[in-house]
Structures are given as C-alpha cells and as structure tokens.
Fold each of these.
Amino acid sequence: MQMSNIARHIAIIMDGNGRWANERGLKRVKGHERGAEAVRTITTYASNHPEIDVLTLYAFSTENWKRPKMEVDFLMRLLNNYLKNEMETYIRHQIRFETIGDISRFSSALQDRIAKTKEATKRFSKLTQVLALNYGSQDEIARAARTMCDRGESITVESLEKRIESSKFGPVDILIRTGGEQRLSNFLLWQSAYAELFFTPTLWPDFNPDELERIIEEFKKRQRRFGGI
Ligand code: IPE
Ligand code: IPE
Ligand code: MG
C-alpha cells in the first residue's frame, strides 16, 4: 500500500495583491496591507497543523526592485511593521522566524528588526516560517557555486545543495501560486525539483485556510513517484 504524502514543507508564491486592490478601486498598497493579514492567518493556521513543519513565503523577489520606488518603500515599511506587530503571534504560536535571500540591500533598521525577530524566536519549533526577502533562486544558486569555486570545492548535487542557503529547510512538498499565473518567477527552483504544483486563481488577500486544506487534500491523492514506477 502506498504511504500517504506528508505536507511537511509548503511554499507559497503570494501573488495578486495589486489586482485585488485594483478590482476594488483601491491603491495597490492596500492590497499589500490585506496580503499581510493573509500571511498572519495562513501562518497561524499552519503552526497548528500536525504535518506542516516549514512554510516558505515569497514576499519580495530580486526582480521586485523594478517596481516604483513608492511601492518598494511601502513594502519595506510594511515588513518592518509586520515583524514588530507580529512578535506576539510568533511567541503565542511558537513559530520560528527565518529568512532566505540577500537582505544586505535593506536598510539597517530593517536588517536589525529581522535579526531581532530571528533571535527572539529561534527556540520555537511548532512551525518555521521562512520569508523569502530579496530572494531569487538563480542568484542563490550562483552565490553557492561562486563560494565553492573560491574555496576549490568539487561540485556535486549533494555538495552544491549544502551550500544553497534555502536548502537547509528541505525539499518543498507543496508549491502554491495564487493570483492565476502559472510560473515560478525564480522561486525555490532547486528545492522544488519534486514539489507538487498548485496554481489557484484566488488573489493572495483572499487565500484562506479552507483553500489551503483543500490543496492539502488534493496533494494526498497525488502519486509521487520521484522517478520510480
Ligand atoms: C504579490 O502581489 C506581492 C509582491 C510581489 C510583493 P503583486 O504586487 O505582484 O500583485 P499583482 O500580481 O500585481 O496583482
Ligand atoms: C512573484 O510575483 C514574487 C512574489 C510573490 C514576491 P511577481 O508579481 O513579482 O511575479 P511576476 O512578475 O508576475 O512574474
Ligand atoms: Mg504579481
């Protein structure tokens, strides 16, 4: 009998905030605000889910710097406020906060806030919430390869994987993209080698635990062969 699939690591491309706002005649940033609320709801739900150990959320890509400065600035402020306001949630639900991506381009105040949140939550283990911040998978793989070249290390799948920052959170089991587009936009390319993919038209601010649960149910029915028969 086939063992049931375990939804250990869920990764989400949280897309559609801007369209959510446009549909309501609101400014794009309002969509990001509502998106942050969805982050809280889904994270809290995941922390109480028996199977989910890791929730990786794509919050800002290496390509998102191309957006108008006003929107980028807003996203940075929103992240800072989110981390400040959510400390209580991290503690109450015993959620460990982690990040992937190159945060050295963020303001020192924001880098500080990120470091403090990591430090304050590092003992928790009910769920690890990983925010992908200034994250790009190609950038990450290139950085890992560069380090290995500089150190004269030989490159194998195993050795390269160890050097890829985000691989410490393990392979992705379920990769969800909200907002209707069917592409990966440079997210977790290495870790998603055998992820089960789910694309939903739901815009991120409207994504809720019921829909996540339906996706997990569907995931349970899929046959993961990993190249076998
Ligand atoms: C995703 O929503 C959030 C970020 C990329 C920060 P978008 O802002 O991309 O929303 P759409 O795709 O324009 O609707
Ligand atoms: C992907 O969404 C990045 C995040 C959700 C942070 P985008 O809206 O930036 O992706 P594209 O431009 O549609 O590929
Ligand atoms: Mg988008």
Amino acid sequence: MSKRISGIHHITAIVGNAQENVDFYAGVLGLRLAKKTVNFDDPGTYHLYFGNEEGEPGTIMTFFPWGNAYRGKIGDGQVGVTAFAIPDNSLEFWKERLNKFGVPFTESERFNEKYIGFEDPHGLLLELVERTPGKNSSWEFGDITAETAIKGFAGALLFSANAEKTGELLESVMGLEKMGQEGNVARYQSPAAIGNIVEVMTERQGIGQMGVGTVHHIAWRAEDDADQLAWKEKIENWRLGVTPVQDRNYFNSIYFREYGEILFEIATDPPGFTIDEPLDSLGQELKLPPQYESVRKRLTQELPRVQVRDLDK
Ligand code: ZN
C-alpha cells in the first residue's frame, strides 16, 4: 500500500482588521481562538489560530490580519473555497444564525450534499456542509452547542492553474482517492475523518492575486518528524522543490508550490498548542517563540488589541 496523506492540517489566509476577524470566526462561527501569536516571518503581524477545543489538526483555520493591506483576488493558484463540517441536522441552525448576523448566503448541492456558501468580512469564500464522520467539537460558545458547533474542515475547493497536474499530485503522490467528477468539480478523498474531502475546480478561474481575502496556503498532515521527512523525499522525487524543515513551535513545516501554483505545506501533528499554555486558557495570552521574547514589550504595544467577544449577548 503506498503512502497516503491523512488530510488537511490547517489552512492559512490573509484578512483585514484583526478584531473583525476574531468577531467573525469566534463570535459568529463559534470556533475557539486556540493560539494568539505572531507571524514568525513578520513578527509585527498577528498569527491567529482558530479550531476546536484543542485546536486539533484538521480543525485549524489560521489568519494573518493585515489591517491596511490591499484586497487580493481569489483565483487560480489558491484554495478558492474553504469548507467547514457541521454535525448532522444542524444546517437549519446555521441558516438562522447567518441570518441573525446579517451574513448573506447561497444554497447549493454537489455530490448529493447540501452546501451553504458565504463570505467572511474580508471576502474569503466559505462553506458549511453536514458531515457524519468526525467527533463533535466540545467548544460551546454563545448560542452554539456541541450539537451545532463546527467540527473542523469538511475540505477545500482548490482553484488550480493546472487542474490535471494538481489532480495527479493528489492521487499519485499524496495518495488521495478520486471519487468522481460533477460538472467542473473533481472530488478526492483522504482517510482522515475530517478535512478529508478535497476538490479541484477543473475550469480556470483567472489567476489569483495574493492579498486581503485570499488563502495563503493549505497544510497537510504528517504523523511526526520522520513521516514528514518521508513526504519531503517523496515530493522531491516528483521533481518539486521543497523547503527545509521549519520550526513553527506548534508543529514543524515544509513547503512547496505544486504545479497548479498553490502553496502546499506539510505540517506535523505534534506537538500542538498545549506546548506553551494549558488547554483551559488557550489563546488568551500573546505567545511568542523564543526568538521574539526579547521584543515582547514593543510587539505588545504595536499589535492592535483583540478580544474574543460573545456576540449572542
Ligand atoms: Zn501553515
């Protein structure tokens, strides 16, 4: 049996105002702000991680809030749409909730599943779809209970600049199984219970432009460091350039740009977010990697203040 990637680890996007970002993903969508840190490559900017109670791989949506940056353009070479999994029989709850917060949405169907599609405040395209597999999130917030809370990723719709090559990489190298094609969407599946349905748009959308409201990269899961190195070798054998391993504190990462121009990362499941703060208080304090502790005071002064607010009150 050839090697298979288990599923999506995290998805990272560029957004605008940080408090608007927190209000939407924590306040409206009910995800837990699981880590408040800085962009390790640009420490004057936050890196905010949202997920389920533990911030487990497969549930983590992360953001670089670039308050005053230019709006990007969603298109080829990017993750076009990020889909979250909600529990069975919770779709009506979510329609009501989006209405309550004045978020317009559309309803559609593909592969016999009902989707609701909407935008976040900065233009990212999101979807919700009911999925039976995967445990419920125990993070209850506002009016959201474990019976309705987002479980994690359902998957992602990739806008590839070369759908055929992207599909080939997913299938032949990463070990996803092609489930079929419906209209201009090809569907692939990986073994994990969540973050396991990855789709590729087979029709060109026009080249994307990085900026506010676009996904920066999609990360896939490696079991541990050894598994990650095995993936590195496998991808290099496919003649793609892969970065050296980078220490992201909560996981180790390698990056490569696939033939469809999308930036892929492979991140290790361990050690996770409890490496530098207890589970109970995840996300409350600004956490910095050792190399930035000496400038904590300056960073704290420069970064905008953000707080998780219960918007149901
Ligand atoms: Zn990443």
